[in-house]
Amino acid sequence: MGTTWDGILEAGLIINNLGINLTDSFARTVNNGTHTRLWDDIWISNVRLADRFPRLYRLECNPRCLISDQRNISANNDLNGSFRWCWTRTPTGRTATELSELDNPLRTVTFRDDIDDGWKWKLNTNDQFRSSILTELINIKILSNDINSGTTLLNRLVPKKIEIFVWRARQSRLPTLCELNRRGIDLDSLLCLVCGNVIESVEHALFKCELSVKIWRCIFQWCIEPIPRDLNFQSMLQGKRIGLNPNDTSNTWQAIEWTTAHAIWSNRNQVVFKKKKMLCYIDLKRNSS
């Protein structure tokens, strides 16, 4: 059980580091007070009452008490007499001042004795936790914040799987032979499994391999676009056209480049894992029509 919760906490910290405040996104909703600790849980004013009123907390006979333990149900939610306090001694001086100050936050709470306490998730408008919404938030953060290049990795013209593919390639997380070797996996050879001439890196697999180069040339000719001298991953990320306006960053052109790179990688996997022949541009065009 400890390992499970350690994994959950670690995942929460990773999500927090992405800029999604997951830790503080959950908040208690207090109704009848039967599942919420009065002093130790955060249920009012975004801070524990034990921290806000430390002197009173030290006088409490039952510091671990639930809200329902201290409420007077017959008081009908009227603060006067609605809480029955149990102190080790009568509050005086600054402690009495804290007791007076405690009056204000308690007056803001409306209790409902027919409903149990629960939780709400602040990152959803209806307060309910949805893993699909959290996944979308994570994807947006990951794909829109490439710290090293400052390049936005979002393009609404392509499926999410292609955006994730581009992000993985940018982070050197595609399982090329070079990356597998760097992670300590014992391989017979690091030479590209398609052409067999050069060590297979991300740049080689997507842009430098002989068959990849042929496909890129056909794509550029099809789009009536000048063929760049050195097509590489950085230029594909930016999606800049070389033709009429080099400063134009067209989402359409970027989508074509990303989709082509993804198709090359997918067909590379067909060669490696299913021993199929690498598709040429004509095959790709026929399969997409």
Given the structure, what is the number of helices? 13
C-alpha end-to-end distance: 52 Å
Strand count: 2
The structure class reads mainly alpha
Task: Give the CA-based shape.
Answer: elongated
Strand content: under 5%
Helical content, roughly? 40-55%
The run of helices and strands is HEHHHHEHHHHHHHH
The whole-angstrom Rg is 30 Å
Characterise this structure.
The protein is mainly alpha-helical and 289 residues long. It folds into two domains: 18-120, no CATH class; 132-288, no CATH class. It is 46% helix and 3% strand. The protein has helices spanning 2-17, 49-52, 54-59, 67-70, 93-107, 131-144, 160-170, 177-182, 202-208, 210-222, 233-238, 251-274, 281-288; strands spanning 26-29, 118-121. It has a two-stranded antiparallel sheet with strand order 1-2. α7 crosses α12 (251-274) and α9 (202-208) packs across α10 (210-222). The longest helix has 24 residues, at 251-274. Residues 75-81 have low confidence and may be disordered.
